[in-house]
Every structure is written in structure tokens, then in C-alpha cells.
Amino acid sequence: MTRRPDLPLAEEPAPRERADAARNRARVLAAAEKLFAERDPASVTMDDIAKAAGIGRGTLYRRYPDRVSIARALLDEHERALQEKLMRGAPPLGPGEDVGPADRLAAFYAAMIDLLETHVHLLLGAETGSARYSTGAYGFWRLHVRHLAQQAGAADADTLADLLLAPLAPELYRYQRENGTSLERISTGLAELAHGTLGSRA
Amino acid sequence: MTRRPDLPLAEEPAPRERADAARNRARVLAAAEKLFAERDPASVTMDDIAKAAGIGRGTLYRRYPDRVSIARALLDEHERALQEKLMRGAPPLGPGEDVGPADRLAAFYAAMIDLLETHVHLLLGAETGSARYSTGAYGFWRLHVRHLAQQAGAADADTLADLLLAPLAPELYRYQRENGTSLERISTGLAELAHGTLGSRA
DNA sequence: GATAGAAGTGGACAGGACGTCCACTTGTGC
DNA sequence: GCACAAGTGGACGTCCTGTCCACTTCTATC
């Protein structure tokens, strides 16, 4: 009944990915990245990706159930890096003695704009519409902003967190950029928003 | 070359909708309203609507090129009513001597929450994802909020307007409501946001 | 009313995307 | 080098879309 003591401690017996599988995974990610970048991500089909990667439909579906999961895989490391900085990085992005929640929110906004600017196409592929809220990443941003709102003494930090994350929707970002709004203007606007809502009021 | 003077002044000669066409239009709208309400609007197909309305595909497509246009048609009168109130209604929704932009924005938020609560299903059908920004309605809300931001002396009212409208995204509203956040909490949060950003700062 | 022609109708059709299934191939541990 | 698990790829059935066009119904006119 008990686990065999000589097995490695990992819960899963570590199934080891086969060499051809690893090669194909890499091909898929590379092909998808390219396709997402050069076309409207919503129009990229699983077929397109399979063709571009030079593999069959079945192989693609074996690991990625849909386009969204591929975009998420591509996004993953970038989002983790930012999350790391939020938790343990230097202020104002990370926590610090003499930095208030409004400044940290503004810094977070700026960092997200950075992420958006570099990877809108992936974010549009991964977090379009309602899918956004079911992302692990969204949960993390939510926790972070809620925490800042609490620090600022907000009455309902939970609700406020979602409202404050809304302006970071990838669709909005694309819309604004395509309409000629510069990265800086968006960042400045968001900073205003941050200080207005979480700033120390008189 | 000149227009015949005895014709009615309307630009289009008013082609008069045929009786059967009018009947079918009504059927379509009724059926669609019902379907949108009882299912996830994104999953309602043109076929579903045609079947529910008891008409053929071709007939449906004749007037409505896609699901979105049907949802918009259903939404239209409600949105117009609100627009009317914003322009000519009583303060704080409408313009007034002793009402500041922050209060008007809060009132607008509250009215939009009302609209969302009653018609999320239609808004999800009509303004999902990027389609939202190409709506005439969005343009109107945008103009209104920009105007308020200008009154409040915002540096970049244009950019701020989009940012302030983001929390009204139908997907977010559905997400919040489904997660148990009450209508009141959302309204209160938005009011905070309104006063924080457009309120008179010390 | 009868009628001509415009307006409206509905279902068949082709195209494309999805997701599954399974006979075959390839890699890996023994 | 063998056995078998893991991986592969393309064919298949289903669903949805949007168009097309032969047919029907309405309405303006006489």
C-alpha cells in the first residue's frame, strides 16, 4: 500500500519527453510565435500552425488542445519573470519601505505596458475576451493589485482590483495603439489612474 | 439634374418594408433575444436563430450579416435612451450648473451598470472583444467621458477616456457577477474610480 | 380584382475549421 | 537488437458560415 521507498520522491514518475516529441514541441512553438506575430492571432488556425510546424494535426492536438494553450505556453516565461520582479524585485515594482501602493501600481502598469507592447500578439492569442479571467496570470495580477488596494485602505479591494486591471485588456491596448496613441501616453494615463485611485487623498 | 421638388425631402425614397419582411424581422428579433438570454450568446449560431424564428437561412442573412448585428439591433433603443439622458437629462447624469465631472462620471457608471445588469447577454452578443470599439455606441460613450475628463482638467482626456471605459467591458461584468460580486459593490467601486480620477484633488 | 415586376424567401451547396480516431512509425529501456 | 510504450499524421464526421438562385408572395397600378 505504501509507496516504494526507493522510487524518486517526485509524485509523478517523471515520464521523460521523447526526443522527437521535444523537437516537435519546439517546432510548434516557433511556428506559432511567427504566425501570431504576422497575422491577427484570432485568425490563426490549428491547421495553420500544424502546417507551419511541418507536423500533422493529430500530433499538434496531442499536446495543445487549442490555440489559446499554445499562446499561453509562449507567454509563460515572460509573465513569470514579471511576477518574480513584483514579489522580490527592487522598488517601486517590488516591495519597499518608502514606496506607497500608488507608486507600485503605477510601476506595475508600466511593466504591463512593456509586456503588452512586446507581446500583444501573444496576449491576444491567449487572453482574448472572457478567457482572460481564467488565466493563472490574471489571478496573480489580481492578487497583486488587490494587495496594493488593501494597503491604500480601499473599502473593497477585491472589486477594485478587477476594475483597475480592466484598462490592461489586450484588445484595448491594440485598439489604442492602432489609433495612434503612443505607448507613453497610455503609460502616463495609467499612472494618473493609479495615483488617483490609490494615491494619498487630502 | 436637380431633385424633383414634389418628392418627399428624405434622401432615400423610403422603400417601405413589405409586410412579410416586417413580420419576419420581428420574429428574428424575438427569437434572438430569447436565445441570447438563455444561452451563452457566443454559442448562438445564425442557424439557431433562423430555426427559432421559423425562417430560412437565406432570409435571415438578407437583413443581418451576423449575430453581432442582431444583438446591436436589439440593444439600439436602450442605448439611445441612455444617450438622450446624458445629453439632455437631469443632473447628475445630464449636464448641470452645480455638478462636477466626477459626479457625472459616477452617474454615468451607475447608469451603464444598470444597462449591463439588464442586458449583459445582448452586450456580450454585440460588443464582445475587439468588436466593442467599432460600435457607434462606444464612440458615443468615449466622447462623453472625454468631455468630462476635459472638464476635470485631465492632461490627456483622449487616452484617459478609453482607460475609464475599460471597466465597463461586458466580459468583465459577467465575470464579476458570476463570481458573486454584487451590483452595488461594482457601482461603488466605479464611483471611487470616478472621484479618484476626475475628482477635485487637493 | 387582375397583373407585372419588385421584394422577399428558404434550402441546397461549397468551403473551412474543429476535434477525434487509429493504423502506422519511431524512440528507448532492457 | 527486441519489445513495447510513446509519438505521429492524415482521414473522417460534424458543425458553422455565407452565397446563390429558383420559387413564392406582396403591392402598386390600372
TrEMBL record, chains A, B:
Residues 1-22 are annotated as: Disordered. Residues 45-64 bind DNA. Residues 22-82 form the HTH tetR-type domain. Residues 13-22 have a biased composition (Basic and acidic residues). It comes from the Bacteria. Gene3D superfamilies: Tetracycline Repressor, domain 2 (1.10.357.10). Keywords: DNA-binding. InterPro entries: Homeodomain-like_sf (IPR009057), HTH-type_TetR-like_transc_reg (IPR050109), HTH_TetR (IPR001647). One of its GO terms (molecular function) is DNA-binding transcription factor activity. The keyword Cytoplasm does not apply. It holds the Pfam family TetR_N. This is TetR/AcrR family transcriptional regulator. It comes from Yinghuangia soli.
